[in-house]
Give the backbone structure.
Amino acid sequence: MSKHTARRTHLLIALLLAGFVLALFARLLFTNRVLATGDILLYFYPYRAYAASVLRSGHIPFWNPYIFTGAPFLANPQAAVLYPLHWPLLWLDVTKQIAWSAALHAWLLAFGGYLLMRRLGAGALAGLVAGIVLAGSGFYGGLIGHINQMNGAAWLPWALLLVTPPAQGEPRHRGRLLIDGGLLGLVVALMLLAGHTQTAYINLFGVGVWVLLLALEPVWAARHTMRRAGLRAALGRVHLEPLAVYVLGVLLGALLY
C-alpha cells in the first residue's frame, strides 16, 4: 500500500470513528441532558466551571476560595487546569465541556487503537473494529463519571503505538528513535496533565511490560538455539529500540510535566 493510499485510509477510518463517537454521545452532546449523579455532579462540574470562568477572565486559577477557608487549585492535579485539550472547550457551558471532552477522548482512544492495530500488521477493517470496541466499551464509557480518568486512559494506545516497531521489522534509524521518544514524552505529559496521576502510572506500567515483551521477543523466538549459544548470545538478541524510546519518552514526559 502506498503512503498516499494509507493516508486516505487513515482519514476515512478517522471520520468513521468520529461518526460512531458522535452517535454514541449524541444525547449528551446535542440535547439538554446532563450527568447528575456522583463525582461528576459534586466534583468535576464545579471544578471545570471555576477553572473555565477564571481562565476566561484572563487569569490563572491558583487558589480556590470556595472550599473551607480556601485551598490550592492549580496545584491540585485533578483540576487539570494546564491540560491543553480543555482549553478549546472553555467557552462552552460546563456540562457541554464534560460531554465534548468525553467524546473527544473516546475518539482519540478509538483512532489510537486503530493505528496500533495497523502497526501490528492488522488490516483496516480489523483496526476499525478495534477502535469501535475500545470507544464503545462499557468500561471506558463508565469512566465519564470521573472524566480525568477517561481523559488519561485515552492516551494508552498512542503510547503503545510509539514504542512498537513497524510490523515489517525494519529497524528505526536514530532520528526516528528520537522523534518517537519525543512524541512519547508529549503523550506522557498529556497523561499526567489530564488530571489522574494513578491512571498515568497504570498506563506507563502497562506500556513498560509491553516494551519488555517486545525487547525479549527475539530471544523467545530463538529460545531453542539460545540454550546452546549461552547467555551472551541471548543478550545480543534483545531488541533495544522499544526500551530506548520508552526511557526517553518517560524522562521527557516527566520534565514537560
